[in-house]
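Researcher: Here's a chain I'd like modeled. Treat it as a single chain, no partners, no ligands.
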Amino acid sequence: MMKNLFLSLFLISVLFMNSFLEVQGGKWKGEGTTQNLESIVIGRCYDYIRIVNPAVGEKNCSEIWEAFKNAFINKDPCSILPKDYELFINLSLHTIPPNKSLFWENNHLLVNSFADRGRRYMSLADTLFGFFGDFLNWCGQANSIELDYESCPTTEECENNAVESFWRMASITYAQHSSGVIHVLLNGSAVGGAYPEPGFFADYEIPNLQKDKISQIAIWVVDDVEGPDIDSCGTHTVEKLENRLKTLGYDVTCTDNYKSVMLLLCVDYPDNSKCTLSSF
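Model: Modeled as a single isolated chain. Structure tokens:
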């Protein structure tokens, strides 16, 4: 009997410890907050307004950080909404030059290189509010003013997490302030198609484009140099995107393997057959 009692107490203590550890952190599947987050983002803010795009004028980087942090700190990490970032967006907002917007799906690094920190195009990551959070991770904890450096929820665990809601709000804002010729760079080698649904472009950016400010939407479908040609203009998911935009009344063009982007990709694959001079 004493043996059974001991075993029962042991099992109870194990369950208690597991519950305690979950409460203390480490319960989520995603990586935790990026170390030194505050220093990184405040530094990025000053880098942006002093070096990357001083045309935006003076911004209070400490105030922007506080607005960013207060959107998710001391809250259930699965109950963060896009509107929680409204103050952050208002403090960091600036003009996006006409004809410079570059939307994308499934080619983050390529877009960053092609946009060239706003010198060639201004993708979401080349705005101050996008530059602030690019490639970073963060979340808070309920009933705590501390960041969670152990783990953060993934979108699969809960959609209303701090990072997902941030990019939804940023995407909506970016679309609303884009004008002139809109450019969309899609990956023709992406598994499942170049134009994913659901996706940020499909769900948050297209619905928030301001039609009266847009003269044309230019789609570029570019295959990975060593990847398959899964999707192209006029076929599969790209055709679906073209039809959607045309139904909304936009003037739409589509180009496969846009030369300027291919030339950039070929820097890393100079000997590939797709990168010979005769291919362009």
